[in-house]
Amino acid sequence: MPFYPMKKNIYILAIESSCDDTGAAILCNDKVLSNVVANQEIHTQYGGVVPELASRAHQQNIVPVVHQALKEANIDKKKLSAIAFTQGPGLMGSLLVGTSFAKSFAQGLGVPLLAVNHMQAHILSHFIVDDAHKKPDFPFLAMTISGGHTQIVQVNNYFDMTVIGETLDDAIGEAFDKSAKVLGLPYPGGPLIDKYAQLGNPKAYPFTRPRIAELNFSFSGLKTQFMNFVHRNTQQNPNFIAENLHDICASLQYTIIGIVIDKLKLATKTTGINEIAIGGGVSANSGIRTALKNGEQKFGWTTYIPKFEYTTDNAAMIGIVGYLKYLDHDFSNEQTIANARFKI
Averaged over 51-77, what is the pLDDT? Predict the structure, then answer.
């Protein structure tokens, strides 16, 4: 491994391509100078992400997105200290685009390569410098909730993390999106359920919370129960969804949030840790954010909620992990490969 001297200001170009968003960010140390994301609208018509279409779109987007990130940060590529990229987990085709680009760019510039675990990045996004956001103290519990993941992680240090609970089947974001599809809402439907839930009665329709041991989750049963509920009621009244949409969304969201809060209560009791940080796309859900804040008063928690732009998939979170790895001289090489099932 070549020797890379430490510099006062470390400029990281970060690449994120784990799913359907192409992201590039520039960080100076732990401060974000630019954070650019290109969304892929093509998946809307299919009701979900199509892997082959996602990888093709990444190939089209990655060069313009990197160019825009450099432009917004107002630095030349020759000033970059390292290239960080998402190694996994994610869709293999999408990961390969980002991995190949990062390797080639790093080799061309003669700078080190930094492979990043996407799930660690969601957690460590809390350590991006932001005057309005306080950083959690170690140890803390991280709840990572997204379209593909649902985990509770005990974080002892930047790279000392242990998954203490996770979903046994579907992720929380998938439960929201698939339920939204049952209601005829466009993809991604999770944010729409959140929007309509704010106008409805959360106790209008009681749904059963699954009884899953310890700190693990399961959403497949709830998803099936919800589908049968909607089907049964629309058979009796074809206008049931239109007439009761707000109450349906509020009741579903209330049940899912209840599952999350119950598990966090058990996690704090089991570990004795009352510091809770959330991350992942579903952490943008207003109901979950409100419930966590209420938990500060009810249960004595200290909660940390990231800025909205750092909740969904983005390159800034990849960059902060890259910066921390740079400080540890934890560099990768050209033999590093994408890993679709990369674990914490």
Answer: 93
